[in-house]
Amino acid sequence: MCGRFTLRNKGQVQDLTGEVIEENYNVAPSSSILTITDSHKWRKWSYSPSWAKEPMNLINARSETVREKPSFKESKPCLVLADEWYEWKRDGETKQPYFFHLDHQMF
Hints:
Layout: E1 4-7, H1 10-17, E2 24-27, E3 32-36, E4 40-44, E5 79-80, E6 84-91, E7 94-101
């Protein structure tokens, strides 16, 4: 599951949302990110259900089970703008990052 991504295509973001952004090569959980819902808003990259006693700060959801999990029952979908993302693979003591992207396009 994605734990880091980039947002570098300033022109495409501005054309799509009207927002001017700074390039970010290391967007991390809890960062302020631009999302598209019924309006374009900057939000913290995390989610916590309203019923949680302590913030859960979830950053990912599995598409296969998101409709079944109580933690996402009240959630509302949004689109997160990203150019590329990183996945890490642990091999013994070392971690290797793998970088996923489309040529000159946003996901």
